[in-house]
Q: What sequence folds into this?
C-alpha cells in the first residue's frame, strides 16, 4: 500500500519503506522532518552502533524485539521487548545486541544534530 497523505494525516506502511544504513544500524524512516516539525519516527535494527549525542533531539527508544543493551554515558541499560528509554540531549549513547527498536525523535531527528566525541 502506498503512502496516503491528506491535510489532516499521513499513513505509511513499514513494509513499503526502504531500509538504509544509519549511525546505529539499519533504519526505516516512517515520519521525517518533511512530515512534521514536532517529531520523527523510525524503526531501527541495531547493528554496529557508534556512540554519539544530539544537542537538540530527545529520543525515545522502544524495544520491539530482541535483546541487548543501551550505553548511556557511562551506564548500561538492558534492553528487551517492551523496554522504553528516553535519551535526553547531550547524553552519549549507542546500542549493542540483536535488537529492533522504534525511535521517536522530538524535535525530529536531523543529521545536522548528530555529534561524535
A:
Amino acid at each position: 500500500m502506498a503512502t496516503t497523505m491528506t491535510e489532516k494525516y499521513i499513513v505509511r506502511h513499514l513494509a513499503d519503506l526502504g531500509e538504509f544504513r544509519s549511525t546505529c544500524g539499519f533504519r526505516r524512516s516512517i515520519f521525517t522532518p518533511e512530515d512534521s516539525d514536532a517529531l520523527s519516527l523510525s524503526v531501527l535494527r541495531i547493528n554496529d552502533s557508534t556512540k554519539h549525542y544530539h544537542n537538540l533531539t530527545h529520543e525515545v527508544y522502544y524495544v520491539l524485539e530482541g535483546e541487548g543493551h543501551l550505553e548511556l554515558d557511562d551506564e548500561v541499560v538492558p534492553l528487551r521487548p517492551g523496554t522504553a528509554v528516553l535519551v535526553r540531549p547531550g547524553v552519549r549513547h549507542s546500542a549493542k545486541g540483536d535488537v529492533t527498536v522504534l525511535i521517536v525523535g522530538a524535535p525530529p531527528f536531523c543529521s545536522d544534530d548528530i555529534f561524535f566525541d
Q: What stands out?
A: The chain has one domain: 20-113. Residues 20-113 form a domain with the Jelly Rolls fold (CATH 2.60.120.10). The chain has a mean pLDDT of 95. The chain has no helices and nine strands.
